[in-house]
């Protein structure tokens, strides 16, 4: 049995896949996603989007950024005028559902996305992300990027009891979710969990704050729901 900590709005595909794979998953979202208003005046966004050639690339760093960002952008400008980038296949799928094609790097990470853009798609970038962004693209693209923060994660203790009493195998899609668990639950509970995380970077950040604890942490091949479940299935 597996416990999923991801927000409800992002878990529908995981639940469908778990049924296909005959895996029992308990959903215990520790956070919800709230959209943030577009402050288009802060960077004169409307005129920049409508100015021919000002932005070459529009980047979505997560499924949530695509869910909450695309609707707003489509009201302002024609998306076919830009190169659209998704950080990985899950985000690409959300964009495709809106009828828009997007480009993704071979490896679903901000680092790979930056290399792809730097090498083949020069020009100014508009990035849509959440408050929990790792800031990698912002730092690397520096003067060539504008940022729109279009959502935030809101954590809640409502499902901590499900985590506490639930299965050992715990899916972690971002570091902040683990941090919230780590700060909210007794250490003995954390020690008894087996974590499947969405990236090596998340594992490294967890290890930084748990140096004196011997945690079992496995890294999925990529951050997709399918890869997360496949890694969990290997452990069961």
Q: What do you see in this structure?
A:
This protein has about 240 residues and is an alpha/beta fold. About 40% of the residues lie in helices and about 20% in strands. The protein is built from 11 helices and 10 strands. It has helices at about 10-20, 45-50, 65-75, 90-95, 110-120, 135-140, 160-165, 175-185, 185-190, 200-210, 225-235; strands at about 1-5, 25, 30-35, 55-60, 85, 125-130, 145-155, 170, 195, 215-220. It has a 5-stranded parallel β-sheet. A 5-stranded mixed β-sheet has the order 3-7-6-4-5. Helix 10 (about 200-210) links the parallel strand 9 and strand 10. Helix 3 (about 65-75) packs parallel to helix 4. The mean pLDDT is about 95.
Number of strands: 10
Unreliable stretches: none
Q: Kindly name the structural category.
A: alpha/beta
* Share of helix, binned: 40-55%
- Based on CA inertia axes, which overall geometry fits? elongated
Overall mean pLDDT: 94
**Estimated radius of gyration:** 19 Å
Alpha carbon gap, first and last residue: 8 Å
Question: Which sequence of SSEs, written as H and E, runs from N to C?
Answer: EHEEHEHEHHEHEHEHHEHEH
| Order of strands across the main sheet | 2-1-8-9-10
